[in-house]
C-alpha cells in the first residue's frame, strides 16, 4: 500500500544510552518531548504538520478472545487472595513533578521531585510503557507505568481507605461488564475481613512482640488498658491478608477448620490446648447454638419490651412510650 510505519525495537546493546522520542515543536516556540517504549509504532512522519490531539504513536495491546464472566474470575481471585502481580506497575510514593535522569544498567531512571522532602528515583525496564512525561505532576499512589497495581503498595502508600476503595471498584468493574449488579456492602464485608489484622511496629508497654500479627481490636483494647495506667501504647501498621489466609488465622479453630486444612487446624488446636469461646457466627452455627447477633446477644436474652400502662410483674423490662413505638413502626 506504500504506507510505512516506524517501530521502536530493543537495542542489541542493552547498556546503550538510547532514548527513542518524538519532539513536537509548537507554533509559539514551545517544545514537547514524548518518550517512546519498545514496541511502539510511530504513525507520523518526520517534519510533518500535526494538530493538537493527533495520534503520533500506537501500541498494540493483547486482548482476550472470550468476554464472559469466567474470563474475569481469575482477576477476582487475584484480588481477594491479595496476590502480588507478576509484572506490577510502578507507582509514585510521593507528590511531585516528574523528571528523567541518566539511564542505569539498561533501565530508565525516573525522578520525582517531591513537594516536601528528598527526590525519589525509580529504575524502569525499557520495554515497559511509561505513562508520564517530563514535567508532569503526579500524586502518591499514581501509576507511573502500565501493569496491574500491587494492592500491598496501595496499602503502604495511601492507607486502608484507599485500598478498600480500590478493591471494591476493581471487583465491581469485572461484574459490571457482564451486567451483574452487586451491592458494595457484600464486597466491603470481605475486604474488612482481609484487613482485620495488623503488624506490631513498636510494642511499647504492652505484651505484644515486634512483627507480631494481631487482630486490630485486640491491639486497640490493650492500648486502652496501657494508656489508662499511664504507659506507652503499641504502634502498628495495617496488614493485608488473602481470604484463605484470613479465614485460617481466625481466633476460632472451629471456624478455621470448617474452611480449609481441617486436619491441620484441629491437630494444631489440640497440641496447643486451644479453647474456642464461640464468639463468632460460624462456630455457633456449626455447634447448633443461637448466633450472637440481634436477639441472640446475651444482653438482650431476658429483656422484655412493654408499653407504658401494660407492665408485666417480676420481669426485666424496657419502658418505652407509645410515641416511640409508632416511630419505630414507621421506620420498619
UniProtKB/TrEMBL annotation:
One of its GO terms (molecular function) is DNA binding. GO terms for biological process: DNA-templated transcription. Its EC number is 2.7.7.6. SUPFAM superfamilies: beta and beta-prime subunits of DNA dependent RNA-polymerase (SSF64484). It comes from SAR324 cluster bacterium. InterPro entries: DNA-dir_RpoC_beta_prime, RNA_pol_Rpb1_5. This is DNA-directed RNA polymerase. GO terms for cellular component: DNA-directed RNA polymerase complex. It is an enzyme of class 2 (transferase). Transmembrane segments: none annotated. It holds the Pfam family RNA_pol_Rpb1_5. It comes from the Bacteria. Keywords: DNA-directed RNA polymerase, Nucleotidyltransferase, Transcription, Transferase.
